[in-house]
Every structure is written in structure tokens, then in C-alpha cells.
Design a protein that fits this description.
The chain contains twelve helices and 14 strands. Helices cover 35% and strands 20% of the residues.
């Protein structure tokens, strides 16, 4: 395997990360629907069954609760299983296994049993698919203590974070923004993965902090470009870890900029934007020059494809929030 940096899309970076983890540790195995011969709906596992065999890349029957339940049993037996859920909306039949078993077992066993299970879930909209295929379920998982929840936004992060998630002894919900699967970028396969719980300042700035994650990170960077033409210097933070949230990076930024806009695809009510706003108000209230503003999906089921561009937060809606922040 070459270790030289190369350009590849996120889907291929995830494939490379899974392959590297399986080469490093023979206890790493994959389980999911159509992940073997087909290589997964989004081809993230393409070629891995051919390379590692059908006992390490297992085509599971249609049944998400069975996939996650099997992974829990395998983890108890010393394996490091990586589950694939075909689409975000299909994870809900497995929520009982995730919330009442996977998340709880370490505390239930007083620390004697860890469950190093990774559940990969393609999430979010932007591909012309309807409800059950374009959900943003992150808040359900971040509300469940005992789970790590992460989402990469670049090929390098995808490659690094999937290896680190597999190496972690904690159960990890690994959310993959599906409209970014073919976003290309440089990947250094000789990289050393950093900690999973840190946010990244992807564009420094002094006038306003814009926090987002996943598929909205490139949109936020375009917002910052537009604002720069207008003389406003926007700091963009890629959250990366949704649970735990890296409070320190956000608070330090807001203490300098005095303004905060949070953008995410998930619906507003009960979303991470409200949680981040509350934390910033607790820790940096006297630094704020304006209320914390949120740009989110609407509190409706995900719409038909002809309406999704109106539903998803885009450049204009985020720019509008930035403008409103500066009116205070």
C-alpha cells in the first residue's frame, strides 16, 4: 500500500481507512447489508470482501437490529465490528440495541466490558432522495450518554477518523454526509490520527464565529469567502465531534469574535444548535455582541427532491443570519 499523499473522494478515503484498520488488526470485521459483493450502496466497502474474505466482511440479512445486536455480541467476544447502515432512516429499527445495550454496557458492567463497535451511517440530504434516505438523526445519538458521535467533512478526516473510531474502546456513531461522498481532497495515508473529540478551526477570523459540521463545512467556507469581499472576517469551525462537543474551541472563538451562528441540516427543535447556543450563553455571555443565531432544516419531515434545496440550509440563508447578527 502506498503511503504517499494522493487525491481521492471521501468514499474512497473511508475505504482506505477501513482497509488499513483491517490490515492492522485481524479482530476488525465489517457487517452490513450488501457490503460484500456489491461493496455497499455507496461503494464504501468496495473490494474489501475480496481482500479479506466473507468471514471478515459479512453480508447481513435485512434487519438493522440484528446487525447491531450481532456486533454487540462480537465485541463482547473480543472483535472490533464495524456496522454499515444503508441509509440514515433505516437505523431506527436498531435504536433499542443502540440506546439500551450498546451505549450502556460499560457502565452496566462497572467498566469490566467495553464494546468497541463502530456504526457507520450515511446521513443528510442533497442527493434527491426522500424521507428515510435523507435524515439527520444526530441529536438522537448525542442525547444518549455512552456514545461517541462524529462526522468527517474532508477525505483526510474521513481516513483518519474512521481508523481512530475503530481503535477506540468506546461505541462510536460514525456519520457520513452522503452528498460529500464524492468530494475530493488530498489524503496522506501515513498520517497519525488525532483525537476524535476535537473541533477544527478550518478558517481563522475575528468578526464572527460560524460553527457547522459535515456537508455544510464547504458551504460555510463559501460564506466566509463572500463575507471577506464585504470586509467581514468570519471564523469557521468544523465541529467534527458532535458528542462530546469541543466547548473550549467554540468558547475561545466566541470570546474573540463576539458573534456566533450555528448551521446544521437537522431540524431546529432539539437540534445541536440549541445545545451549542446554551453552552456559549453559560460560558461566554458577557462576550456576546448579538444573540446566537441558528440556521437549520425545518421542523417538517424531509421533503420531496424538488423542494430539498429550499429545505436545506444554503449559502443565502447562512449569509442572511450573518447579516442579522451584525445588525445588533
Amino acid at each position: 500500500m502506498t503511503t504517499l499523499p494522493g487525491t481521492m473522494p471521501i468514499a474512497h478515503a473511508l475505504n482506505a481507512g477501513l482497509r488499513a484498520a483491517m490490515e492492522t488488526d485481524d479482530k476488525v470485521m465489517l457487517i452490513g447489508e450488501d457490503i460484500g459483493q456489491l461493496g455497499g450502496v455507496f461503494r464504501v466497502t468496495d473490494g474489501l470482501q475480496k481482500g479479506f474474505g466473507d468471514l471478515r466482511v459479512v453480508d447481513a440479512p435485512l434487519g438493522e437490529a440484528g446487525i447491531v445486536g450481532s456486533a454487540i455480541g462480537l465485541a463482547m467476544a473480543g472483535y472490533r465490528p464495524v456496522c454499515e447502515i444503508q441509509f440514515d432512516g433505516f437505523v431506527f429499527p436498531a435504536m433499542n440495541q443502540i440506546t439500551t445495550q450498546l451505549a450502556k454496557y460499560r457502565h452496566r458492567s462497572d467498566g469490566r466490558v467495553s464494546l468497541p463497535v463502530v456504526i457507520r451511517i450515511p446521513v443528510g440530504g442533497g442527493i434527491g432522495a426522500i424521507e428515510h434516505h435523507s435524515e439527520s438523526p444526530e441529536a438522537y445519538f448525542t442525547h444518549t450518554a455512552g456514545l461517541k458521535v462524529v462526522m468527517p467533512s474532508t477525505p483526510q478526516e474521513a481516513y483518519d477518523m474512521i481508523r481512530e473510531a475503530i481503535r477506540s474502546d468506546d461505541p462510536t456513531i460514525f456519520l457520513e454526509p452522503k452528498r460529500s461522498y464524492w468530494l475530493k481532497g488530498q489524503v496522506n495515508r501515513a498520517s497519525t490520527p488525532g483525537p476524535l473529540d476535537k473541533a477544527a478551526v478550518v478558517r481563522p477570523g475575528e468578526d464572527l464565529t460560524l460553527v457547522t459540521y459535515g456537508a455544510l463545512v464547504p458551504v460555510a467556507l463559501k460564506v466566509a469567502d463572500v463575507c471577506a469581499e464585504e470586509g467581514r472576517n468570519i471564523e469557521v469551525i468544523d465541529l467534527r465531534s458532535l458528542s462530546p462537543i469541543d466547548d473550549a474551541t467554540i468558547i475561545q472563538s466566541v470570546e474573540r469574535t463576539g458573534r456566533l451562528v450555528v448551521a446544521h441540516e437537522a431540524s431546529r427543535t432539539g437540534g445541536l444548535g440549541g445545545e451549542i447556543a446554551s453552552r456559549v450563553q453559560d460560558a461566554a455571555f458577557h462576550s456576546l455582541e448579538a444573540p446566537v443565531l441558528r440556521v437549520t432544516g425545518y421542523d417538517t419531515p424531509y421533503p420531496a427532491s424538488r423542494l430539498e434545496e429550499e429545505w436545506l440550509p444554503g449559502l443565502d440563508r447562512i449569509l442572511d443570519a450573518v447579516d442579522r447578527s451584525f445588525t445588533y
